[in-house]
Amino acid sequence: MIKITLVGDIGSGKSTFLYRLLGTELKVGHDFQRIDIGNKTLQLWDTTGQERFETISKLHYKNSNIILFMYDIAKTNTFDNAERWINGIQKYGTNAKVILIGNIICEDRKVTSFAGNRLAQKYNIDFIEIDIVNNNLSDHLKKLIL
Ligand SMILES: Nc1nc2c(ncn2[C@@H]2O[C@H](COP(=O)(O)OP(=O)(O)OP(=O)(O)O)[C@@H](O)[C@H]2O)c(=O)[nH]1
Ligand SMILES: [Mg+2]
Q1: Which CATH architecture has domain 2-145?
Q2: Ligand in closest contact with the CA of 20
Q3: Which of 22, 92, 102, 142 could disulfide-pair with 58, CB 3.0 to 4.6 Å?
Q4: pTM attached to this predicted model
Q5: The 3-state secondary structure of the chain, one letter per residue
């Protein structure tokens, strides 16, 4: 069982990503959904960007194996706070593997791949960009998760 928590600013695409992947909506903070991939079971948790990393339960972070931090490449504001989030995650998430995800819903790009890469390198985490509507669990993302 791999526990995965999605975090990121309001409107960064977390719930859209999960909905497209699971075909069902999750009640934030109270609900999770299982999905089997290969011989692994993923347990996916949504959170809301209204919360800051301080208020998302530290235990929740601690219990996560993987934390996906999502921003929208077309919305600069969802990237601006990334550094603060990642700091918080690394502080509380101890053993969780953090993956930075640039979500491409809209091609009107404001955040360059270079900027995403640079941030990921600074914090020594993985980085990918994915089209969450059409290819939500790309082979690349699977490889990072499994
Ligand atoms: N163009 C386009 N936009 C979409 C599509 N699906 C969702 N969106 C938009 O993508 C944005 C992402 O919203 P959410 O997935 O709710 O974001 P979130 O990260 O869950 O936000 P919070 O729960 O508030 O933290 C919204 O503005 C949606 O309207 C789509 O198929 N095409
Ligand atoms: Mg949401």
Answers
A1: 3-Layer(aba) Sandwich (3.40)
A2: 1
A3: 92
A4: 0.91
A5: CEEEEEECCCCCCHHHHHHHHHCCCCCCCCCEEEEEECCEEEEEECCCCCCCCCCCCHHHHHHCCEEEEEEECCCHHHHHCHHHHHHHHHHHCCCCEEEEEEECCCCCCCCCHHHHHHHHHHHCCEEEEECCCCCCCCHHHHHHHC
